[in-house]
């Protein structure tokens, strides 16, 4: 995603773009506004997030940095907010970037704490997964989903003020792939209307719509069963306890909101430490299923 001032060709797009329809999305008291010309694109975004847009009569002020604008020309589109901009060369890239922008708008508007992480419903409670990029969180979510478990959230999760439950955040399940050859098995049985396949940089990506079966609905909460720090390893897959001090440091690194309560994060770690529910999950090569089996056994 490009940042900073617009290039001359992007300025031309801004000048040439016809006014689009204005739609507001609401989630948990947070609002995000999207200006987009295509009704089909808007319907696709609604389907992927499972959020219905409210159509606004008035076009937003150009000075409002919270607005997401899609400005189209010559087969491409500029997706622009007050903080960043990205050029989409096809429709799937366009939807990808708009979903990213909406997710960030909700993070900035949310009054509580949002964590960079993921959460799966194991049936008797949720495991909350944290860890750096490419540590395997989404791959584990995908395998759990394919095996009939419910996905609470990918990439972002929110936890209630008492730190007892986790709830979904409006982000879709998004997979990175090593190559185009890896895509076909992942898409098996998924209708084209409910998934996006695109390339960001040189990396193939897939996004699955939250309207597919197996995603926990907004407003539904799940009790937290355990907090898991994920990492990759070249050795065998293993699940082991982690010290509360290390878990607290990890949680603080994974907070996505700038306005959060440090005491709430401490409370979250203490509650799980008192129940011996703080773990590190090291996932070996091609051992995602084995990692999921370890989580089921907690």
What does this protein look like?
The chain is an alpha+beta fold and 298 residues long. The chain is built from eight helices and 18 strands. The strands form three sheets. Strands 7, 8, 9, 10, 11, 12, 16, 17 and 18 form a nine-stranded mixed sheet that branches. A hairpin with a 4-residue loop joins strand 5 and strand 6 (85-88). The chain is globular. The chain starts with 7 loop residues before the first helix and ends with a helix.
State the gist of this model.
The protein has 298 residues and is α+β, with helices and mostly antiparallel strands. The chain has 8 helices and 18 strands.
Average pLDDT reading: 88
- Poorly predicted regions: 1-18
Shape: globular
Q: What is the straight-line distance between the termini?
A: 40 Å
What is the radius of gyration? Answer: 20 Å
How do the SSEs run, as a string of H and E? HEEHEEEEHEEEHEEEEHEEEEHHEH
In percent, how much strand structure appears in the residues? 25-35%
């Amino acid at each position: 995603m490009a940042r900073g001032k617009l290039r001359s060709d992007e300025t031309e797009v801004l000048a040439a773009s016809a006014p689009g329809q204005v739609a507001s999305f609401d989630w948990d008291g947070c609002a995000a506004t999207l200006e987009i010309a295509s009704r089909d694109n808007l319907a696709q975004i609604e389907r992927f997030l499972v959020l219905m847009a409210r159509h606004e009569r008035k076009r937003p002020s150009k000075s409002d940095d919270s607005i997401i604008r899609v400005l189209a020309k010559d087969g491409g589109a500029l997706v622009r907010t007050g903080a960043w901009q990205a050029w989409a060369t096809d429709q799937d890239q366009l939807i990808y970037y708009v979903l990213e922008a909406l997710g960030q708008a909700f993070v900035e508007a949310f009054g509580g704490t949002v964590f960079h992480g993921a959460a799966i419903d194991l049936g008797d409670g949720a495991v909350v997964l944290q860890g750096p990029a490419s540590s395997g969180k989404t791959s584990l979510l995908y395998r759990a989903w394919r095996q009939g478990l419910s996905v609470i959230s990918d990439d972002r999760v929110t936890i209630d003020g008492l730190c007892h439950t986790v709830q979904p955040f409006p982000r879709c399940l998004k997979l990175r792939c090593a190559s185009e050859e890896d895509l076909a098995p992942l898409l098996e049985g998924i209708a084209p209307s409910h998934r996006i396949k695109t390339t960001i940089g040189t990396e193939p990506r897939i996004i699955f719509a939250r309207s597919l079966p197996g995603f926990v609905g907004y407003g539904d909460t799940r009790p937290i069963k355990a907090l898991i720090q994920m990492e990759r390893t070249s050795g065998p897959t293993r699940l082991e306890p982690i010290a509360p001090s290390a878990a607290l440091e990890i949680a603080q690194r994974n907070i996505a909101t700038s306005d959060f309560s440090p005491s709430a994060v401490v409370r979250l770690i203490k509650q799980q430490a008192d129940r011996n529910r703080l773990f590190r999950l090291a996932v070996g090569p091609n051992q995602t299923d084995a990692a999921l089996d370890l989580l089921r056994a907690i």
